[in-house]
Amino acid sequence: MTTLxxxxxxxxxxxxxxxxxxxxxxxxxxxxxxxxxxxxxxxxTFTTVFLDGLRMGSLYALIALGYTMVYGIIQLINFxxxxxFMLGTIFSGTFIAWAxxxxxxxxxxxxxxTAPPVGLGIGxxxxxxxxxxxxxxxxxxxxxxxxxxxxxxxPKLAPLITAVGMSFVLQFIGLKWNGxxxxxxxPVLPRTSIxxxxxxxxxxxxxxxxxxxxxxxxxxxxxxxxxxxxxxRATAEDQDAARLMGIDVNRTISFTFILGGALxxxxxxxxxxxxxxTSYNLGFRLGLIAFTAAVxxxxxxxxxxxxxxxxxxxxxxxxxxxxYGFGMRWGQSVVFIILILLMVFKPEGLLxxxxxxxx
Length: 359
Hints:
Blueprint: H1 6-41, H2 43-74, H3 81-102, H4 118-148, H5 157-178, E1 183-184, E2 193-196, E3 199-202, H6 203-225, H7 227-237, H8 239-244, H9 249-275, E4 277-278, H10 282-297, H11 302-321, H12 331-345
Antiparallel strand pairs: 1-4, 2-3
Helix pairs in contact: 1-2, 2-6, 2-9, 2-10, 2-11, 3-4, 3-5, 3-9, 3-10, 4-9, 6-7, 7-9, 10-11, 11-12
């Protein structure tokens, strides 16, 4: 019978760790070679597709932030979050069409193909942004208050199943509101492009990035610098200790759900203006991608959610649009293969911290 000494076990672990690092470095080197080859082959196409990837990555990041904020504070994967985003897309389309009709114009209604006046359109989009944030934040508050609050001390499986149930409820609402088919809308933001040489930059990409960056900066400031942010971090660390320090834990958790819902609403408006279609089952696909982004960056880490969302957006668009790629039909497969490889070598995610359970 063969026995291993402590030094032998440690030596085997070191060899395994070094092998994992070599494999990881090799994969990174292959990725760098692939990017360089595509850039040399078609630099203008590479730049255009890269900007499109940033646009989609911003959308994924906003949805992923809702997942990671809720998980960070109560360790719950809120599977209803993707469907809340879906309701945000439908609300955005309905509100914008209604706002144009109130303004005495039929522009923006379903089936209209005339581009709206730029000034009126941007004003209505800003108003829709505020309203969709209130709408989605309010729904998320009600979900937390009516469905999740009573289950905080229950076994972890109970709130998880409840989250799946809430996902089906929101899908049913979306089905009745939007219909069973895909519904098209006329985008309000200008769909023109700016050409710099052979590089094509979509104007709505710049507008959407201009909307997203201040939101992310403001959210980071809120969580790290304000009194409410300190309460959120204290509640995430230890709810009982937070109560002893005078923090209203219920209010803090409700505020987190409202904030996550508002971000889902912003993402819904962005998607409505980018893709100009809505569907009742949209939340499943986009929600799964956003959840993957949160895990990729490190679930519970705000910066990780943003990084994961941007990386998935870039990977998907670069794979689909570059000369040397697998094509659009393999886009999601490539993303999940990369996620699996990352989970093998770095299970906590790119910016996550390793955790150990005390027994």
